[in-house]
Write a structure and sequence with these properties.
TIM Barrel; six-stranded parallel sheet; 8 strands; 10% strand; binds zinc ion
Length: 306
């Protein structure tokens, strides 16, 4: 990693990422930060306390998380795939309390998806891995726990991904292909670790804001639909382990209608493995945006979420 952000960028990131209320975050996928998530609030305090200088040691430019640039320059990282396909992804599971219900609904809908799992969750519910794979779903790496990668050093970051990848491989017999950091927050250490572990980082183009206490199937559909288009990647959650209690009901309830809307638009819905991720003009694992993009890129209001 040769590019590091300017001090202003890090300070700006520390100031707006975690503290912006979810109800005012703008369009789906535009802002980093999740309401009701103690990890994000902790990140805000820690980032502010750590100061820009410390973060510079392994922080990645906000360009990597700026949606518009990301989509154009790093479409695979953004989750852009084949124009007639939408990737369906779930984060934060597997959760014995909720994931089986998602698997039931997906089976009824004859759909398969990608589950970005936490190692801590998978360790507690290893039996779900076999069920997911047997149903044709894909397991991917979210992290061992949900602490933002930006707060970790390179060694800790590598360990997070390595442990989770190994657990998935052991339980399923298949090495995972994809990785998505908690909150969608990238760091240089994360990208380097992903590269070493042959994991492809993928974020998303649309989310359901399904983590809040007020989320319902209708609000999830309302959040997803404006950004629903071919080639997109949808983010939902099959666990409330980092969300408001029982928030997963909203995503679960939205699935049948969301699948119907995709079908009506002639869009196939499925896992990332079938998404046809497109490489972009920037190497996906060696982000080296030119200086002007880094120092004069879009403001925080255009950045993505996690
Ligand atoms: Zn997550």
């Amino acid at each position: 990693m040769t590019y590091l952000p300017g001090v202003e960028e890090v300070e700006e990131a520390a100031s707006w990422w975690p503290t912006r209320p979810a109800g005012r975050v703008g369009r789906a996928g535009n802002v980093v930060g999740r309401a009701g998530n103690a990890g994000v609030a902790g990140f805000a305090r820690a980032a502010a306390g750590a100061g820009a200088a410390a973060l510079l040691t392994h922080a990645v430019p906000s360009v990597a998380t700026l949606r518009r640039l990301r989509t154009q320059l790093m479409p695979a990282l953004a989750g852009i795939g084949a124009p007639d396909h939408v990737a369906l992804t779930f984060d934060d599971g597997p959760d014995p309390a909720s994931t089986p219900l998602f698997l039931d609904v997906l089976a009824e809908l004859d759909l398969r998806a990608t589950f970005f799992v936490l190692g801590t969750m998978l360790e507690r519910a290893p039996h779900l891995a076999e069920r997911m794979v047997d149903a044709g779903h894909e397991l991917a790496v979210h992290g061992w726990d949900h602490r933002p990668m930006l707060l970790r050093g390179p060694r800790s970051t590598y360990r997070q991904l390595y442990r989770t990848r190994e657990l998935i491989t052991t339980l399923t017999g298949r090495p995972p292909r994809f990785v998505r950091p908690p909150h969608g927050i990238l760091s240089a250490g994360f990208l380097l670790a992903a590269r070493r572990l042959e994991l492809t980082p993928v974020l998303w183009t649309a989310w359901g804001r399904d983590w809040t206490s007020t989320a319902t199937p209708l609000t999830v559909l309302d959040a997803l639909t404006p950004d629903l288009r071919g080639g997109g990647t949808v983010l939902l959650h099959d666990s409330d382990c980092t969300s408001a209690p029982q928030a997963w009901h909203s995503a679960l309830g939205a699935l049948p209608e969301f699948a119907a809307r995709c079908h009506d638009r002639g869009l196939r819905l499925g896992p990332l493995a079938e998404h046809g991720l497109r490489p972009g003009p920037l190497a996906e694992h060696g982000l080296r945006p030119p200086g002007p993009l880094a120092t004069h890129g879009p403001r925080a209001s255009e950045a993505p979420a996690g």
